[in-house]
Amino acid sequence: ILKRARWKKSYKENPKKHLLRVEKWRMEHPERVKEILKKSRLKLKMRVMSAYGGEKPRCKCCGVDDLDFLDLDHIKGGGNKHQRQLRKQGKLLYYELMKQGFPSGYQILCHNCNYKKYLRGKCIRIHKII
Predict the structure, then answer these.
(1) What is the pLDDT of residues 15-33, one digit of tens each?
(2) Could you give the CA distance from residue 122 to residue 130 in angstroms, rounded to a whole number?
(3) Coil vs helix vs strand at 106
(4) DSSP letter string over 8-19?
(5) Are the beta carbons of 80 and 114 closer than 8 angstroms?
(6) How far, in Å, CA of 36 to CA of 57, rounded?
(7) Please, are residues 63 and 129 in contact by the beta-carbon 8 Å criterion?
(8) Would you say the C-alpha torsion 94, 100, 106, 107 has a positive or negative sign?
C-alpha cells in the first residue's frame, strides 16, 4: 500500500516523467506487456460473461462452456451496428455494460449459435456438444 501511495504521489508531481518511465519499461519488456494485456482482457471477459451467464457461463442455446468460444449476443439484434459505434472494439462494449450495471438485452451464445442466429434469425442447433 505504501508503494502505491508513493507511486500516486510521484505521478501527481511529475506525470510526464512517470509516463516516460512506464513507456521505457514497456519497450524493454514487450513479452511481459503482452502477458499482462492478455490476462486483463480475459479477466474483463470473464466478469462480463459471469454477469450475463452466471458463475460458470455457458451458451444459452447449446450449453458450450469454453470461455474462448463464448460471445455476448444482443438479444434483439443490432450487435453489428453497436460494434461499429464502438469502433469494432469488443472490450469497449464490456466497459460500457459494466458502467451501466449490466443492463438486460444481452445473452451468452457460442460462436456457432451466434453466427447461426445472425444468418437465419435463430440457431437451429445442428451442432453437438463435445
Answers:
(1) 898 889 889 999 999 999 9
(2) 21
(3) strand
(4) HHHHHH-HHHHH
(5) no
(6) 23
(7) yes
(8) positive
> Cell 460473461, residue?
49
User: Do residues 98 and 48 lie in contact, with contact meaning Cβ atoms separated by under 8 Å?
Assistant: yes
- Cell numbers 510526464: residue: 16
Q: Are 52 and 107 in contact (CB under 8 A)?
A: yes
- d(CA 105, CA 52) in angstroms, rounded, equals 10
Residue 39 CA, distance from chain mean position: 11
Residue 70: helix, strand or coil by DSSP? strand
What's the rounded mean pLDDT across residues 59-63? 88
Cα–Cα dist 110/124, whole Å: 13
Distance in angstroms (rounded) separating the CA atoms of residues 55 and 6: 37
Tens-place pLDDT, residues 77-123: 766 666 666 665 667 788 888 998 998 888 999 998 888 888 877 77
